[in-house]
Amino acid sequence: MYDRESVVQLQVMASHVWEFLGSHRVFLFVMACVLMLTRRYLRFLNATRFFPPGPPRLPFIGNALNFDQAYPHQTFLKYKKIYGPVFTIHLPNPIIVIADFDLLKKFNSLFGNELAGRPSGYIYGLFSKHQPDGDGIILCQGERWSAQRRFALRTLRDFGMGKSLLENKINDHLSLLLKRMDSYLENDNGVCKANIDLSLHLSFCVGGIINDLVMGRHHYFGDPEFLYFKKLIDNTLKGFASPSLQLVDAVPLTRFIVPYYRQYIREGFAIQNYFIEEIKKHMKTFDVTTEPTNFIDAYLKDMSETHSHSKHMSIQTLAIDSGDLWTGGMETTVTSILWGVLYLIHYPEVQTKLHDEIDNVLDVTPAMVSERHLLPYVQATIDELLRIINVLPWGIPHQALADVEVKGHTIRAGTTVMMQIGAVHFDETIFPEPEKFKPERFLDEYGNYKPHKKLIPFGMGKRQCLGESLARMEVFLLFVSLVQNFSFHAINDKLPTIERRAGMTSVPHPYICEIRKRHKNLIMANDSQNEK
After folding, report:
1. 3-state DSSP call for residue 311?
2. Dist CA 73 CA 149 (whole Å)
3. Could you list the residue ranges that cross the membrane (predicted)?
4. Is 135 helix (H, G, I), strand (E, B) or coil?
5. Which of 48, 40, 35 lies closest to 90, judged by CA?
6. Which residues fall in the annotated binding site for heme?
7. Binding residues
8. Could you list the mean pLDDT of each consecutive 10-residue stretch along the chain, which spans 532 residues?
């Protein structure tokens, strides 16, 4: 037993220790962080000893400062010349990059399943409750991903993906777009023209198509709900590839000091809640006995029935699936058309050739997907557009699900792998003068369309874009209709910038262009009612 004096001394000592800890808590917190990060870094060095070679990196931030964030393909090509077609970068976690078409084809063929995973880092798991295999379609792997992808493909095909049924739906929204643009044009010395920012108009058009497919409804032009939702999507895509969030993904503790993190979380969950609320509305009116006309209803019907994969289907998963389909179906198509108009302004000779071919072949008849083969220069221009815009410059990383041997190096299970399509599309040995916009590279000596097997804008293998048919149909119909009905010009001969903005998607800077009407009457497939 301690006597009273000893107890008092112990209490005094404890008080002094507590005071010391209180006055030095910031120092102790920093030291704890340093020790933890040092331990993590040492483990990281040991784990990456056998990775392919790559550029020197800084502790904790890796090669983040080495990359041109708006033109990452240029940095990838530089490293490819130095280290070969397979190399390692750190952003800041280690990523093995495969930057060669033949290797991409080989490994997607031999190890399609083994390389079809998705990274399970902190940022990736925020909105899937850190489930081991993720959730949804884009950031998911394993049986859950297979179930979602199979269901989405089957449902989209039922709704007419790649068929005339879906073409009619696209034309409905396209007709609204053409009429709306036409309403802005005014007669100026015999020329019907106006200065227009196409971004919002295209967003409502393409957004209407994907909304019809996913939700069974669409927003009319100027709807504040749509504008708010699109802003959330734009901010999330821009921030996802930022160095600050990649740092949080590698070292989650840094989320407390990264300013943008809280905004990213808030907006990301707002997107998810948007779809959850939409699903709740469908659940109130859903009738299992009727044939579904949209993805949400089809999913709810499937959930109500007994299936072997039902354990992988839930309201939470449906919300993420819907967001994945919406983002994938909206952002890349709008971005592609915006770049298309921008390149036509910069390359007026290409625009003239397009006008000549469309006028000679179609005259005043609306374009049909089944007649693509009659428009070789249009096809070549779209291919060149999809190549040069490199709409997903970073791609979506894969994760090895099992050990794989590549070029004498072992990619261990759990390693992040980047299939670098941009390094293929800008490889000067495949596409000479890759930074130039040259549709002729997809034509033969007789002017016939000549597809290039190494053009892979929608990816390859197990993770190839499931909405490729829809996207190609949308881009063709929108692009041809816009060029058939209008011509696009710089305002006062001042070319809008063709520089790219940094982000998950390669988005052009906002621009306004002069649009002139080419025919007295609009040429369109469906004469839809005026937009409300």
Report:
1. helix
2. 29
3. 20-38
4. coil
5. 48
6. 465
7. 465
8. 57 60 56 61 59 89 89 96 95 92 92 90 80 89 92 89 82 95 90 94 95 91 90 81 78 83 88 93 89 93 71 90 90 94 98 98 94 97 97 92 84 92 97 97 96 95 92 96 97 94 89 95 78 58
Q: 113 by DSSP, 3-state: which?
A: coil
Enumerate residues 6+ apart whose C-beta is below 8 A from 20.
none
- What the block records as the tokens of 360 is 């000679």
Contact 531, 176 (CB under 8 A): yes
Domain residue limits, the chain: 47-517
**Residue position matching structure tokens 């550029």:** 55
pTM more than 0.85: yes
The CB density around residue 73, as the number of other CB atoms within 10 Å, is 22
Query: Is-contact 207 330, C-beta < 8 A?
Result: yes
H-only helix segments in 24-126: 25-47, 72-83, 101-110, 122-125
Q: Give the model's pLDDT for residue 31.
A: 62
Cβ within 8 Å of residue 214, ≥6 positions away: 294, 295, 296, 322, 325, 326, 329
Q: Please provide residue 354's backbone torsions phi and psi, each rounded to the nearest 5 degrees.
A: -65, -45
Q: Can you tell me which residue has the tokens 């004469």?
A: 527
Question: What is the Cα–Cα distance from 227 to 20, expressed in whole angstroms?
Answer: 53
Do 90 and 62 meet the contact criterion of CB atoms below 8 Å apart?
yes
- Check whether the bond before 92 is cis (ω within 30° of 0): yes
pLDDT of res. 308: 45
CATH fold, domain 47-517, is Cytochrome p450 (1.10.630)
Q: Is residue 189 left, alpha or beta, with left meaning phi > 0 and alpha meaning psi from -120 to 50? A: left
Nearest residue to 482 (alpha-carbon basis) of 270, 345, 299, 337:
337
What would the two tokens of residue 334 be?
A: 């709008």
Secondary structure percentages of the chain, helix, strand, coil, to 5 = 55, 10, 35
H or E segment to which residue 166 belongs: helix 164-184
